[in-house]
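Support reply, case 0932

Customer input (verbatim):
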Amino acid sequence: MKIKGTVKHINLGTGFWGIIDEKGGEWRPVNMPEQLKKEGKKVSLTIREADGEMSIFMWGTPVDIVTFHT
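Our regenerated output:
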């Protein structure tokens, strides 16, 4: 799946990085590249849902980033 969105640092628990897409969808990358970890950064991603991902965070759909462009 391809999405365009904005990087956001979510301050829940210990904190984590997420992506909010243009339609308001919330995505929680399990493999967020360091070069994307900047609040407000606009990104274009190819993602896939992460299989069997378990987390304490109750935010967003867990995904793997396959490719990205900034």
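We compared this against your earlier run and they match. Two observations from our side: The two ends are 17 Å apart (CA to CA). Residues 2-69 form a domain with the OB fold (Dihydrolipoamide Acetyltransferase, E2P) fold (CATH 2.40.50.500). Please reopen the case if you see a mismatch on your end.
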